[in-house]
Amino acid sequence: MARMFRVLGFWTLVIGLMAFAGHMIEMAMLFFFQTAVFVLLGYLNFSERTYILMFWGYMIISFVGFTYWSVFEMGLPF
């Protein structure tokens, strides 16, 4: 399970680099931060249960944040 967090770190790095190349600096910085957190957590060797709980927490926070941003910050599309 620790390897999967390092894999998540790799893919968030790839997404961050693509965002940086597309001049989306805020998105790139967010993904670079996520890369650092995922790689750090990947090397801490927690138990599998801890990794699963951390991933569920990450998913809940990211989905709530995405929903908030898309509903309240982006506005209506008319």
Short précis:
The protein has helices at 2-21, 25-42, 48-73. With 78 residues, it is an all-alpha fold.
Task: Describe the protein's architecture and organization.
- Keywords: Membrane, Transmembrane, Transmembrane helix.
- Pfam families: DUF2626.
- This protein is mainly α and 78 residues long.
- The protein has one domain.
- The protein starts with a helix and ends in a 5-residue tail after the last helix.
- The protein contains three helices and no strands.
- The model has no long low-confidence stretch (mean pLDDT 94).
What distance lies between the first and last C-alpha atoms, to the nearest angstrom?
44 Å
What is the percent of helical residues?
over 70%
Low-confidence stretches: none
Percentage beta strand: under 5%
Q: What overall geometry do the principal axes of the alpha carbons give? A: flat
- Class of secondary structure makeup: mainly alpha
Rg computed from alpha carbons, rounded to a whole number of angstroms: 15 Å
Largest sheet: none
DSSP E strands, number: 0
Give the SSE string: HHH
Could you tell me the mean pLDDT? 94
Number of helices: 3
Write the topology of this structure:
Elements: H1 2-21, H2 25-42, H3 48-73
Helix pairs in contact: 1-2
